């Protein structure tokens, strides 16, 4: 019986923090424009700060803060500078991660680049309208929530125990099912194409891989959470790692094929 309370020990703080984040995120998505872009800048800056601290050879010093500021400035420049090549600024923080002393230099560089690309993509997606961004966030949330409860209730074989020992196949598949249901809801009531039912689990899987990548970074760094900024969720990377993976895949697919996104 002692295992049951421990299994759900973080649920209260997790739910309260999630409610606050959902409320803030909903308002910012509804507002769009500069308020939403500002939120994205803060989130990406915090993620780069956490990434730099976890992969750095020392958590002290000014380097993480400098790289976080560089990420914010670079992302803002990529979004608003009137240049056809402004998007190249997205690679600047990743270059900073690559050129500073740290462990796991390659994964830190790639993850930093992915974070900047995702931030840019989220703002661009919101500029197209609320529906597509709401779908993306709903897919990530549904996958995370169903995976959380299915994994703890059903248990079973681990998905990738060497990297993420808490992830189970039951939780992973439950996340795909939840994402497909989100896609179906947008088809039936949001006017999206039926391809969204297939795209949604694929995006959820990309989000799960983003989560696993962050878990691998934490295991290599020997830490439980990326930071303690969000009660019940650890750090910003702990909460938004899946959204990073999902957003990058949507961006990549959108470059090579038309996507059946709602409202687009």
Automatic annotation (TrEMBL):
Gene Ontology CC: one annotated term: plasma membrane
The catalytic activity of this protein is classed by the Enzyme Commission as 2.7.7.41
Alphabetical UniProt keywords: Cell membrane, Lipid biosynthesis, Lipid metabolism, Membrane, Nucleotidyltransferase, Phospholipid biosynthesis, Phospholipid metabolism, Transferase, Transmembrane, Transmembrane helix
Major subcellular location class: membrane
Give the protein name, as stated in the record: Phosphatidate cytidylyltransferase
> What pathway does the UniProt record associate with this protein?
Lipid metabolism; Phospholipid metabolism; CDP-diacylglycerol biosynthesis; CDP-diacylglycerol from sn-glycerol 3-phosphate: step 3/3
Record-annotated membrane-spanning stretches: 12-30, 64-81, 107-125, 132-154, 174-199, 242-261
GO terms, molecular function = phosphatidate cytidylyltransferase activity
Q: How does it sit in the membrane?
A: Multi-pass membrane protein
